[in-house]
Specification:
CATH class: Alpha Beta
Order of helices and strands: HEHEEEEHEHEH
Number of domains: 1
Number of strands: 7
Strand content: 15-25%
Low-confidence stretches: none
Number of helices: 5
CATH architecture: 3-Layer(aba) Sandwich
Radius of gyration: 13 Å
Protein backbone atom coordinates (compact mmCIF):
# COMPACT_ATOMS: atom_id res chain seq x y z
CA UNK A 1 0.00 0.00 0.00
CA UNK A 2 1.41 3.45 -0.87
CA UNK A 3 2.59 5.50 2.12
CA UNK A 4 -0.08 8.20 1.81
CA UNK A 5 -2.84 5.55 1.68
CA UNK A 6 -1.42 3.85 4.78
CA UNK A 7 -1.23 7.17 6.63
CA UNK A 8 -4.77 8.06 5.60
CA UNK A 9 -6.06 4.67 6.77
CA UNK A 10 -4.25 5.01 10.09
CA UNK A 11 -5.55 8.53 10.74
CA UNK A 12 -9.15 7.42 9.96
CA UNK A 13 -9.10 5.08 12.96
CA UNK A 14 -11.03 6.33 15.98
CA UNK A 15 -9.08 4.31 18.56
CA UNK A 16 -5.28 4.15 18.72
CA UNK A 17 -2.96 2.33 21.10
CA UNK A 18 0.15 4.34 21.97
CA UNK A 19 2.78 1.71 22.75
CA UNK A 20 5.60 3.31 24.68
CA UNK A 21 3.45 6.12 26.07
CA UNK A 22 5.47 8.05 28.63
CA UNK A 23 4.74 10.01 31.81
CA UNK A 24 7.64 12.33 30.94
CA UNK A 25 6.25 15.40 29.09
CA UNK A 26 9.57 15.83 27.23
CA UNK A 27 9.44 12.37 25.62
CA UNK A 28 7.79 11.59 22.29
CA UNK A 29 5.70 8.88 23.92
CA UNK A 30 3.99 11.61 25.95
CA UNK A 31 3.88 14.24 23.21
CA UNK A 32 2.26 11.87 20.71
CA UNK A 33 -0.22 10.58 23.28
CA UNK A 34 -1.34 14.14 24.09
CA UNK A 35 -1.45 15.19 20.41
CA UNK A 36 -3.70 12.26 19.45
CA UNK A 37 -5.89 12.78 22.50
CA UNK A 38 -6.30 16.52 21.81
CA UNK A 39 -7.14 15.72 18.18
CA UNK A 40 -10.16 13.72 19.38
CA UNK A 41 -8.85 10.16 19.14
CA UNK A 42 -9.66 7.59 21.82
CA UNK A 43 -6.11 6.77 22.86
CA UNK A 44 -4.91 3.91 25.01
CA UNK A 45 -1.54 4.24 26.73
CA UNK A 46 0.52 1.04 26.77
CA UNK A 47 3.51 0.92 29.10
CA UNK A 48 4.09 -1.93 31.58
CA UNK A 49 5.88 0.45 33.96
CA UNK A 50 3.15 3.08 34.32
CA UNK A 51 -0.31 3.03 35.88
CA UNK A 52 -1.49 6.36 34.48
CA UNK A 53 -0.49 8.70 31.65
CA UNK A 54 -1.99 12.18 31.60
CA UNK A 55 -4.55 11.01 34.19
CA UNK A 56 -5.72 8.11 32.00
CA UNK A 57 -5.23 4.43 32.83
CA UNK A 58 -2.15 2.85 31.33
CA UNK A 59 -2.22 -0.77 30.13
CA UNK A 60 0.64 -3.23 30.57
CA UNK A 61 0.23 -4.77 27.10
CA UNK A 62 -2.02 -4.97 24.05
CA UNK A 63 -4.03 -7.90 25.34
CA UNK A 64 -5.69 -5.78 28.05
CA UNK A 65 -7.06 -3.24 25.54
CA UNK A 66 -10.55 -3.36 24.02
CA UNK A 67 -10.65 -5.73 21.04
CA UNK A 68 -12.01 -2.88 18.88
CA UNK A 69 -8.58 -1.18 18.78
CA UNK A 70 -6.96 -1.99 15.42
CA UNK A 71 -4.32 0.75 15.13
CA UNK A 72 -1.16 1.34 17.14
CA UNK A 73 1.75 3.69 17.14
CA UNK A 74 4.96 2.23 18.50
CA UNK A 75 7.48 4.47 20.28
CA UNK A 76 9.91 1.95 21.74
CA UNK A 77 13.52 0.88 21.14
CA UNK A 78 13.85 -1.47 18.12
CA UNK A 79 14.44 -4.59 20.27
CA UNK A 80 11.18 -3.95 22.12
CA UNK A 81 9.44 -3.20 18.80
CA UNK A 82 10.40 -6.68 17.60
CA UNK A 83 8.67 -8.26 20.61
CA UNK A 84 5.63 -6.02 20.21
CA UNK A 85 5.32 -6.96 16.53
CA UNK A 86 4.41 -10.51 17.57
CA UNK A 87 1.73 -9.17 19.94
CA UNK A 88 0.32 -6.93 17.21
CA UNK A 89 -0.04 -9.93 14.92
CA UNK A 90 -1.67 -12.04 17.63
CA UNK A 91 -4.11 -9.23 18.45
CA UNK A 92 -4.93 -8.82 14.74
CA UNK A 93 -4.07 -5.13 14.42
CA UNK A 94 -4.60 -3.61 10.98
CA UNK A 95 -2.47 -0.44 11.11
CA UNK A 96 0.89 0.06 12.83
CA UNK A 97 2.97 3.22 12.78
CA UNK A 98 6.61 2.80 13.83
CA UNK A 99 7.88 6.19 14.93
CA UNK A 100 11.44 7.07 13.84
CA UNK A 101 13.79 5.38 16.26
CA UNK A 102 11.39 2.47 16.85
CA UNK A 103 11.89 0.89 13.44
CA UNK A 104 13.30 -2.59 13.09
CA UNK A 105 13.69 -4.28 9.73
CA UNK A 106 12.64 -7.63 11.17
CA UNK A 107 9.53 -6.08 12.80
CA UNK A 108 8.61 -4.34 9.54
CA UNK A 109 8.99 -7.59 7.60
CA UNK A 110 7.03 -9.60 10.18
CA UNK A 111 4.15 -7.11 10.32
CA UNK A 112 4.01 -6.69 6.54
CA UNK A 113 4.03 -10.47 5.98
CA UNK A 114 1.16 -10.69 8.46
CA UNK A 115 -0.96 -8.34 6.35
CA UNK A 116 -0.64 -5.31 8.62
CA UNK A 117 -0.32 -1.89 7.02
CA UNK A 118 3.01 -0.63 8.41
CA UNK A 119 4.12 3.00 8.36
CA UNK A 120 7.79 3.76 9.01
CA UNK A 121 10.37 6.40 8.12
CA UNK A 122 7.68 9.00 8.82
CA UNK A 123 6.91 11.00 11.97
CA UNK A 124 3.28 11.09 13.07
CA UNK A 125 3.69 14.62 14.42
CA UNK A 126 4.58 15.86 10.93
CA UNK A 127 1.71 14.01 9.23
CA UNK A 128 -1.24 14.85 11.45
CA UNK A 129 -3.58 17.55 10.20
CA UNK A 130 -3.65 20.67 12.38
Amino acid sequence: MPLNDSISGFLKQKEIAVIGASRNPAKYGHIIYKKLKSAGYQVYAVNPEAQFIDGDPCYPDLFNLPKSVKAAIVITPPKITEKIAHQLLQAKYEFVWLQPGAESESAINLLSAGGISVIYNACLLLRMPE
